[in-house]
Design goal:
The chain is mainly α and 449 residues long. 84% of the residues lie in helices and 0% in strands.
């Protein structure tokens, strides 16, 4: 039985991983092309990307509330009900993203008060507005992607993501440097290329949803379903805690990026390079953990707590292996990879020094990702809010300032501080997942562990 769980996790997780690796490739390409273009463009993209990570993770996290609900319904084969759920979830996600866009607009009006290098603001401002325009398309795609994951169809979003990512990289080549007669737009060119790919993704997945015969039961449920306060409230209760959890987590990294900017343009550029490397581990872990969440939600629909725990523990073992592989890649190949992003000796030297603290937090990251997603699969998501708030905001940000400035660690101390918040969150998520599934008989729990 345990072997079958591993097969299911990998069958669902590997297509998600392929899509995530495509997104990582785009991040690598953006960082490399902008780093080769200019250090100022790389530093500016670092600030904007990390600032927007908060709202992007909030919006994506809000869509994740659909997965456990749709997954539980799929376990009961209630396809029409999934379509109706999706309709209500889509409306709620659009409204939520509009609210987030309003907050980011207010931040835009106060960019000059955030302590960033003055010479970067003319680059930051237009790129910021281009990035802001892509939030609604991003949310639309992820709503339908969560539906696809919940019904165990993970390959379809993968192909859409990979196609859009290929277009994004090609667009970067055209618009950053001005190839084939296109204007040389530098940092803004990278922004426009990303925006175009984000618009195409929801268009593609919605065409599949509404036009493919195999999904007709879902699309009919969507068309015939009613917008109801009860359904909206149900989605809200599962979506908001996940959104807040991811907001607090990404917010701690954004706070650290702002602090890196206080150190100057070179540390900020180095921070962007090392965060791109860290994203490699994060996306790999999250792909497998997303599969864990789907399978846990399917088991939740059947009230099979033994399967819920068995799935989470099997997924964790897979993630421990992946965390070990990621750490090995960073240790043995970190420097050659970093050298692909920039030729600036100062940025290279600052980035090389961050490899060790990057490696240190990999197991904490893998653990918190696995059990936060397992907890999400149970639909018992309220503890996620305070776990993330305490770990990343109450503890994480002060520790980042302490390590980086009070103790004089600088950029090294900032990245080193990530281990504290991630391992704290990992322990808390594990504890609450075990509490949520504690009706499992003791011998089975011991065997799973």
């Amino acid at each position: 039985m345990e072997r079958g769980v591993y097969v299911k996790i990998l069958r669902l997780g590997l297509p998600i991983l392929a899509g995530q690796l495509g997104m990582i490739l785009v991040g690598f390409a953006d960082t490399k092309m902008l780093g080769m273009y200019s250090t100022a463009a790389l530093a500016s993209s670092s600030f904007v990307n990390n600032l927007f990570n908060v709202c992007i993770f909030a919006c994506i996290g809000f869509t994740y509330g659909i997965t456990p609900l749709a997954g539980a319904l799929y376990g009961q084969q209630r396809k029409g009900a999934i379509g109706e759920l999706l309709k209500n979830g889509l409306l709620l996600n659009i409204l939520f993203t509009l609210g987030v866009s309003g907050v980011m607009t207010a931040i835009y009006l106060n960019l000059d008060k955030m302590g960033q290098p003055e010479e970067l603001l003319p680059l930051i401002r237009p790129y910021y507005l281009i990035y802001l325009s892509g939030l609604i398309p991003l949310s639309l795609f992820n709503v339908f992607a969560q539906w696809s994951y919940a019904i165990n169809r993970t390959k379809m979003p993968m192909w859409i993501i990979l196609g859009a990512n290929g277009l994004n990289i090609f667009g970067n080549w055209l618009l950053i440097y001005g190839h084939w007669g296109f204007p040389e737009l530098g940092l803004n060119g990278a922004g426009y290329s990303t925006l175009i790919s984000r618009i195409l993704c929801p268009l593609a997945i919605m065409l599949v949803f509404f036009l493919r015969k195999e999904y007709r039961d879902y699309s009919d449920g969507f068309k015939k379903g009613r917008i109801s306060r009860l359904e909206l409230a149900t989605v809200w209760r599962t979506s908001l805690p996940v959104a807040l959890q991811m907001t607090f987590e990404s917010g701690s990294f954004t706070g650290s990026a702002i602090m890196a900017g206080w150190l100057g343009a070179v540390p900020l550029a180095a921070y962007q390079v090392i965060i791109i490397l860290g994203t490699l581990g994060f996306c790999v872990y999250y792909s497998i953990a997303s599969a864990v969440s789907v399978l846990v939600s399917n088991a939740t629909g059947q009230d099979d707590r033994r399967a819920m725990r068995g799935t989470a523990m099997a997924g964790y073992k897979v993630l421990l292996v992946l965390a070990t592989i990621s750490s090995g890649v960073f240790y043995f190949f970190g420097k050659p990879i970093i050298m692909e992003f920039t030729h600036d000796p100062a940025v290279l030297g600052a980035s090389f020094a961050l490899i060790l603290p990057l490696i240190l937090y990999q197991y904490g990251d893998a653990t918190q990702i696995n059990f936060s997603n397992a907890l999400r699969g149970t639909s018992r998501v309220m503890p996620m809010i305070w776990i993330a708030f305490v770990s990343y905001i109450v503890v994480g940000l002060p520790v980042t300032y302490l390590f980086g400035f009070t103790l004089g660690g600088g950029l090294y101390g900032i990245v080193l501080s990530f281990s504290v918040s991630l391992f704290l969150a990992a322990g808390l998520f594990l504890w609450f997942f075990l509490r949520a599934t504690r009706n499992v008989v003791k011998p089975d729990l011991e065997r799973a562990l």
